[in-house]
Amino acid sequence: MTSHTLYVTAAYAISAVGIGGLIAWILLDQRARRRDMAEIEAAGLRRRSERKEARP
């Protein structure tokens, strides 16, 4: 392998690991936020957007 090929391969590998880490972080955070929302809704709090009141 030439040094150029090694450099390009390493760059792609590092990028893939970085992007994979970001995707994992997003999915884990989404899971945590859904769990937080479930706890809040179980406590009886509701979102403002779910109100049935008509606005004047």
Estimated radius of gyration: 22 Å
* Shape label: rod-shaped
Compute the number of strand runs: 0
Proportion in helices: over 70%
Note down, in words, how this protein is organized.
The chain is an all-alpha fold and 56 residues long. It is 71% helix and 0% strand. The chain is built from 1 helix and no strands. It has one helix at 3-42. It is rod-shaped, with a radius of gyration of 22 Å. The N and C termini lie far apart (72 Å). The mean pLDDT is 90.
Task: Show the helix and strand layout.
Elements: H1 3-42
Task: Provide a compact summary of the structure.
By secondary structure, the protein is mainly alpha-helical.
What are the key terms here?
71% helix, mainly alpha, 56 residues
